Amino acid sequence: MNRVQLLGRVGQDPIMRQVDGKNPVTIFSLATNEMWRTGETEVAQTGTLGDISQKTTWHRISVFRPGLRDVTYQYVKKGSRLYVEGKLDYGEYTDKNNVRRQATTIIAGEEQYTVPLCLFKWKRGGEPLK
């Protein structure tokens, strides 16, 4: 099974690309945050809980499915809180300096019977709440 579930904030407005006559794709980045407490062993000794540490991870999201791709391009905006469900995809490409690179992408919306994207905190009129 290849399944990814992410909840985070969109890093930039989605862009739509079409390469070499292939189907268009909507692409955007999503930031997820991981938080933990350091020094928890100090609780018993000093009574303090320790410091809170945080790590932000950026994910590249691609949406190929017609309909979902268009809705994502139209309604998802930078800063939107978004739930994404999809699969991991590993690929290679050659950059503008002719160097081979590897890329990890989340392909959203491949499953036909799930909710692949879900926006949070929207009000009437289609404007996202900050």
UniProtKB/TrEMBL annotation:
InterPro entries: NA-bd_OB-fold, Primosome_PriB/ssb, ssDNA-bd. Keywords: DNA replication, DNA-binding, Mitochondrion, Mitochondrion nucleoid, Transit peptide. Transmembrane segments: none annotated. Gene3D superfamilies: Nucleic acid-binding proteins. GO terms for cellular component: mitochondrial nucleoid. CDD domains: SSB_OBF. It holds the Pfam family SSB. PROSITE patterns: SSB. It is found in: Mitochondrion matrix, Mitochondrion nucleoid. One of its GO terms (biological process) is mitochondrial DNA replication. One of its GO terms (molecular function) is single-stranded DNA binding. Its main location: mitochondrion. This is Single-stranded DNA-binding protein. It comes from Bambusicola thoracicus (Chinese bamboo-partridge).
